[in-house]
Amino acid sequence: MGKIMVILLAAVFAAAGLTTQKATAQEKQGKQEKTAAAPKEARWHGLIIRMDKDTSTLDVSKGNVVKRIHYDSSTKWTEGTKIIEMSEFKENADVICLGTYDAKGEFHATRIQLQRR
């Protein structure tokens, strides 16, 4: 009876170890998938040189480089931590754009922050 009990206990511990290893492997895989799926936040700081409400874009210049920034109804327009109206943003305004790049390489802003000079 003692040998059977030892064998059963060994089998239980072995099964528990395999279950833990499988759960850890699934956790790691889940984290890797989330990392791959979650786009890295991008940042662009410059001056607004063009605003096009029809296409929901801003052209923001940093030196000689102009980047087209796409926005939508979920984009937050801020000054510091305070949410403000988009109408307060004008050409030549200094802005910081935060967002992500899509598969086409287009910048989609989640937040556009006005920097007062």
How would you characterize the overall build of this protein?
- This protein folds into 2 domains: 1-38; 42-115, OB fold (Dihydrolipoamide Acetyltransferase, E2P) (Beta Barrel).
- It is rod-shaped and about 85 Å long.
- The protein has 1 helix and 7 strands, in the order H-E-E-E-E-E-E-E.
- The chain has one helix at residues 2-37; strands spanning 42-52, 57-62, 65-70, 76-79, 82-83, 94-101, 107-115.
What key attributes describe this structure?
1 helix, 2 domains, OB fold (Dihydrolipoamide Acetyltransferase, E2P), 117 residues, 5-stranded mixed barrel
Helix-strand blueprint:
Layout: H1 2-37, E1 42-52, E2 57-62, E3 65-70, E4 76-79, E5 82-83, E6 94-101, E7 107-115
Parallel strand pairs: 3-7, 4-7
Antiparallel strand pairs: 1-2, 1-6, 2-3, 4-5, 6-7
